[in-house]
């Protein structure tokens, strides 16, 4: 009997996780099946409890349930607790244990493009769940200096307070734009620039051309913001590698096996290119 896995969220039909994971299970000859399940909030607890069935090895959690799922689990690991969100759950004999692979997934992606990132001055745009995972994970792994900017300055202040750090500055968007040349890494964690939306999260007029400009969006694969940064000579990084990395970490939690991340990455890229050609 196949072992079952899933990703839950609302909406969820756009998710590339089933494609990515099922292809890798097939390539490795593993008897697992991964599906996307759209869950309305009123049924969240019922669905979570159904995953305690022994044929479910675990599941992923995406928007809007990464925080709401925590009280429904039996245990969460230290990093997930610090972040305050769970995106990966392992079923150990009916006991549901939550993890957060988003922050580590991003950190691994950043390491590839900027091996000395721990010595760089970093600016994070946004203060939502993705910003929280990246901010806290980078801080926990010895980032030297990370500042925050957000349209709601208070929300960014709240994130800084929750992280219990004193050496971060919170800037308004206009302040961040003025001081942008001081940063070697700029990370957009907002949805501004995602497919079917317009605009940029931050003007790049004062960008240091030696900077790394990173966007966790992967649809489109190169947002207008990343195109602008590239034209200014900056290194750019979209959200594909983070998405694949966090998925690979979850894969190993469930199966105990490290997947082929290069193959997973190519499956995602090929699918995104196919979707773009159909538009």
Summarize the structure.
The chain has 279 residues and is an alpha/beta fold.
Provide an overview of this structure.
- The chain has 279 residues and is of the alpha/beta class.
- Helix content is 39%, strand content 20%.
- The chain has ten helices and twelve strands.
- The chain has helices spanning 17-28, 44-50, 78-83, 102-113, 129-140, 153-163, 173-178, 224-231, 240-255, 261-278, and strands at 3-9, 32-38, 56-61, 75-76, 88-92, 95-99, 121-125, 145-149, 170-171, 185-188, 212-215, 235-237.
- The strands form two sheets. The chain has a six-stranded mixed β-sheet. Strands 9-8-7-10-11-12 form a six-stranded parallel β-sheet, with helices on both faces.
Q: Note the gap between the termini.
A: 39 Å
CATH-derived architecture of the largest domain: 3-Layer(aba) Sandwich
Strand order of the largest sheet: 2-1-3-5-6-4
**In DSSP terms, counting alpha (H) and pi (I) runs of 4 or more, how many helices?**
10
Mean pLDDT across every amino acid position? 94
CATH superfamily of the largest domain: NAD(P)-binding Rossmann-like Domain
Could you give the order of the helices and strands?
EHEHEEHEEHEHEHEHEEHEHH
- Taken from the alpha-carbon principal axes, the silhouette is globular
Largest sheet: 6 strands, mixed
Give the count of structural domains. Answer: 2
The Rg value, from CA coordinates, equals: 19 Å
**Proportion in helices:** 25-40%
Pfam families: SDH_C, Shikimate_DH, Shikimate_dh_N
Keywords: Amino-acid biosynthesis, Aromatic amino acid biosynthesis, NADP, Oxidoreductase
Function: Involved in the biosynthesis of the chorismate, which leads to the biosynthesis of aromatic amino acids. Catalyzes the reversible NADPH linked reduction of 3-dehydroshikimate (DHSA) to yield shikimate (SA).
Enzyme class: oxidoreductase
């Amino acid at each position: 009997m196949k072992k079952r896995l899933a990703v839950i969220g609302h909406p969820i039909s756009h998710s590339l996780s089933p494609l990515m994971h099922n292809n890798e299970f097939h390539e490795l000859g593993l008897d697992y099946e991964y599906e996307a399940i759209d869950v309305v909030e009123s049924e969240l607890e019922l669905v979570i409890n159904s995953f305690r069935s022994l044929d479910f090895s675990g599941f992923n959690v995406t928007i809007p349930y990464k925080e709401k799922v925590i009280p429904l689990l039996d245990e969460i690991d230290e990093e997930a607790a610090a972040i305050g969100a769970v995106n990966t759950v392992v079923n150990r004999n009916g006991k549901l244990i939550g993890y957060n692979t988003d922050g580590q997934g991003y950190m691994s992606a950043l390491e590839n493009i900027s091996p000395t990132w721990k010595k760089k001055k970093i600016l994070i745009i946004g203060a939502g769940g993705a910003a929280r995972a990246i901010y806290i994970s980078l801080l926990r792994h010895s980032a030297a200096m990370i500042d925050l900017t957000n349209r709601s300055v208070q929300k960014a202040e709240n994130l800084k307070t929750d992280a219990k750090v004193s050496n971060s500055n919170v800037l308004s968007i206009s302040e961040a734009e003025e001081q942008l040349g001081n940063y070697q890494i700029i990370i957009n964690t907002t949805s501004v620039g995602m497919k079917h939306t317009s605009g940029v999260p931050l003007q790049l007029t004062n960008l240091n051309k030696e900077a790394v400009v990173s966007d966790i969006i992967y649809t489109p694969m190169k947002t207008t913001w990343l195109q602008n940064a590239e034209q200014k000579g900056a290194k750019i990084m979209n959200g594909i590698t983070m998405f694949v990395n966090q998925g690979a970490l979850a894969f190993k939690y469930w199966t105990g096996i490290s997947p082929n991340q290069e193959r997973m990455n190519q499956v995602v890229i090929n699918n995104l290119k196919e979707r773009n050609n159909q538009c």
